[in-house]
Write a structure and sequence with these properties.
Largest sheet: 3 strands, antiparallel
Oligomer: single chain
Strand order of the largest sheet: 1-2-3
Shape: globular
Number of strands: 3
Radius of gyration: 19 Å
Number of helices: 6
Length: 169
């Protein structure tokens, strides 16, 4: 109906739906992208996977690797997805949040709901796929990966990463 914003939103949602369908397909190709910060004190390696070598060599896939590595350097996530965040870390945060909420004097029947909301916010801080992209705050890294999957027509995944910072153990 001539509404370009709605058209773009519709096409993006169709692409995301197709990306969800591809999620179960095997990803045995890909690349290891890297980023070294200009001061030489932060370095990142990230493994991105796709289904074919052809897609792994495309500009879109290569650009995704650069963007994700750069984001990891800036945002310092601790896991790829919230399911990969160590359970002991989540439980530790849960205890801290519960104690904070109790000290604020919130009613007992609301404490669990408030803590759960804080845990979801914690995941957005530490899980790569749930983090807001440093270059565009309207997207998460998960959105960026889905967009690349929609463009390439293949299942695209961030498998793992390592981030080094000078002086860190």
């Amino acid at each position: 109906n001539g509404d370009m914003d709605k058209a773009v939103e519709f096409l993006r949602s169709k692409g995301a739906a197709k990306a969800e369908k591809r999620a179960g397909r095997a990803v045995k190709e890909g690349m290891i992208a890297n980023y070294i910060h200009h001061n030489g004190k932060i370095a990142v390696l990230v493994e991105l996977n796709c289904e074919t070598d052809f897609v792994a060599r495309t500009d879109d896939f290569q650009q995704l690797g650069k963007y994700v590595a750069e984001h990891i350097a800036a945002a310092a996530p601790i896991a790829v997805d919230k399911d990969a965040v160590p359970a002991e870390k989540v439980e530790s945060e849960r205890r801290i949040f519960a104690e904070q909420v109790k000290q604020e004097g919130k009613p007992d029947h609301l404490i669990e709901k408030i803590v759960e909301g804080k845990i979801q916010a914690f995941y957005k801080d530490v899980a790569l796929m749930h983090q807001v992209w440093v270059r565009d705050s309207s997207k998460t890294i998960g959105d960026l990966v889905k967009e690349t999957s929609a463009k390439t027509g293949e299942n695209v995944q961030v498998r793992r990463f390592v981030r080094y910072q000078l002086g860190e153990a």
